[in-house]
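Escalated from tier 1: zinc ion holo job.
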Amino acid sequence: MIDKEKVMAAVKLFLEGIGEDPNREGLLETPERVARMCEDIFGGMSEDPGMHLSKQFPAQSSELVIEKDITFFSTCEHHLLPFFGKAHIAYIPDGKVVGLSKLPRTVEVFARRPQIQEQMTIQIADAVESNLAAKGVMVMIEAEHTCLTMRGVKKPGTKTITMATRGLFVENQERQKMFLEAVKSC
Ligand code: ZN
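Tier 2 regenerated the structure:
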């Protein structure tokens, strides 16, 4: 749970720290606004990804399931600046599948936390693998980090790509290629 009082006090102090006057009209409600926003953008911290993946349906199929272009917004834990992009998830079921909305919800749980892209990729792969007992999982995330584009080296458009493989995807170049090609096609 977000401690709104603490966030509000911190935002006020932060504004003072950068040389602002937290009592000037435009900033008066900023601490309260930021605290409310934190409930949204960091709300994933109090959520268990298993909650979305626990409702499963039996399926005979053990063929590849791919859900791609899952848009997400997250916050880089090193700079507290946004990073955003698309997550792509593939899994090979072992007798059970989840509803199609559940994978995007799982992405949300991990995106709505202070995060680094590498870790988020692994967390999604592990959550799908363990909750679904899937035979194989592959996750690819492509994202733009505003800490790279609006500060520091300032290279807008730079994309960071991370991948994680589990089970039957590990060391199986053919399967990985199939997934990456599906992600590329429209
Ligand atoms: Zn950063």
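The beta strands are 56-58, 65-76, 82-92, 96-98, 114-115, 136-145, 160-167.
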